[in-house]
């Protein structure tokens, strides 16, 4: 296996460097290429799920626009590190007002996780964007565009990034595995795809974490490394509770939480996926109520409620539904 595994984050090592290397975001890439060709880059807002190439696209645009020395003309900030107005008044403003000499008369400021900024900081950012529009272009990156104030949205070209296709993620993971000498098995690849849910960054990081072990990447190893429980085990818990074996389901729950160390939040998410897929036959009304109950439990756990008690309550609710459907079938 390559020694790079010990030192380099594969997410950075295999990040596309140019717009031509970006896949599965064709509409966005074509628009960005036009900006590069005309050398007329507007302020932009990149929005979409995590791990879909927003930051990569911004950096690739800068590379294609400025060439190999592009880093001299770009400042990348993460707004989640410094969310307040002081960051806008210092680091951001100092860079924005500095003039450069060259064929292209403006710099690019990339502000990642812009949706984590306070409203006061966003209003200060809007004024900075207006004051230095001739010498600085802003690329704001966020997961939730609704958290960006309207005055900023109206001053930017908004680009929506979609989740990457399964085929695109598979192709990239296989390429990385071959390059790094990782024995990636088909069931391990499918497990990584399932867990990452279209987030390529998460998929690559998980592959690297498993590769540290120096063993073939199988489904079992992937789930153990991620600290997650098999979907099949959650399906078994749900079916046992629904079919009247509440104690058997509860024992499986204890095993997952205590012996396997799965977090309550991760386990609850898997319950949500399994029930959404229809592993138990519920009518629409009961399914809706059960999913609403899961959302309530998620909130309670996030506020510090005990994982075991909340998940036991979920199994008890599923068991009650099972009793209800048995009674109705006998009538």
What does this structure look like?
- The chain is an alpha/beta fold and 331 residues long.
- The chain has 3 domains: 136 residues, 3-Layer(aba) Sandwich (Rossmann fold), CATH 3.40.50.300; 61 residues, Orthogonal Bundle (Helicase, Ruva Protein, domain 3), CATH 1.10.8.60; 91 residues, Zinc Finger, Delta Prime, domain 3 (Up-down Bundle).
- 56% of the residues lie in helices and 8% in strands.
- It has 15 helices and 5 strands.
- The chain starts with 9 loop residues before the first helix and ends with a helix.
- The N terminus is likely disordered.
Count of helical regions: 15
What's the level 1 CATH class of the largest domain?
Answer: Alpha Beta
Q: Give the full name of the CATH homologous superfamily of the largest domain.
A: P-loop containing nucleotide triphosphate hydrolases
Q: Count all strands and give the number.
A: 5
Return Rg in Å: 24 Å
Order of helices and strands: HHEHEHEHEHEHHHHHHHHH
CATH architectural type of the largest domain: 3-Layer(aba) Sandwich
Strand order of the largest sheet: 2-3-4-1-5
Overall mean pLDDT score? 90
Number of domains: 3
Q: β content, as a range?
A: 5-15%
Characterize the largest beta sheet: strand count, sense, and whether it forms a barrel: 5 strands, parallel
Terminal-residue CA separation: 64 Å
Q: Uncertain spans, ≥5 residues at pLDDT below 50? A: 1-6
CATH topology of the largest domain: Rossmann fold
How would you sum up this structure in a few lines?
It contains 15 helices and five strands. It is α/β, with parallel strands linked by helices and 331 residues long.
């Amino acid at each position: 296996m390559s020694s790079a595994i010990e030192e380099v984050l594969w997410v950075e090592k295999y990040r596309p460097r140019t717009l031509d290397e970006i896949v599965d975001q064709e509409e966005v890439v074509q628009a960005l290429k036009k900006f590069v060709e005309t050398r007329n880059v507007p302020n932009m807002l990149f929005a979409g799920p995590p791990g879909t190439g927003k930051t990569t696209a911004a950096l690739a645009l800068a590379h294609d626009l400025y060439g190999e020395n592009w880093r001299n003309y770009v400042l990348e900030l993460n707004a989640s590190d410094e969310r307040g107005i002081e960051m806008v008044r210092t680091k951001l403003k100092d860079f924005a007002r500095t003039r450069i000499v060259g064929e292209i008369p403006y710099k690019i400021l990339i502000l990642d996780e812009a949706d984590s900024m306070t409203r006061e900081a966003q209003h200060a950012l809007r004024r900075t964007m207006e004051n230095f529009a001739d010498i600085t272009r802003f690329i704001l990156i966020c997961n939730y565009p609704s958290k960006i104030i309207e005055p900023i949205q109206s001053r930017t070209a908004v680009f929506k990034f979609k989740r990457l296709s399964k085929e695109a993620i598979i192709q990239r993971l296989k390429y990385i595995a071959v390059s790094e000498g990782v024995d990636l098995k088909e069931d391990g690849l499918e497990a990584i795809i399932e867990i990452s849910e279209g987030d390529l960054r998460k998929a690559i990081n998980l592959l690297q974490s498993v590769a540290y072990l120096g063993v073939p990447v199988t489904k079992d190893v992937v789930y153990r490394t991620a600290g997650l429980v098999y979907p099949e085990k959650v399906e078994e818990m749900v079916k046992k509770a629904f079919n009247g074996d509440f104690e058997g389901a509860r024992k499986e729950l204890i095993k997952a939480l205590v012996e396997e160390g799965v977090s309550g939040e991760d386990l609850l998410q898997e319950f949500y996926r399994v029930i959404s897929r229809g592993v138990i036959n519920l009518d629409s009304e009961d399914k809706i109520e059960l999913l609403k109950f899961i959302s309530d439990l998620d909130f309670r756990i996030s506020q510090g409620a005990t994982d075991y008690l909340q998940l036991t309550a979920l199994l008890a609710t599923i068991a009650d539904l099972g009793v209800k459907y048995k009674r109705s079938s006998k009538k």
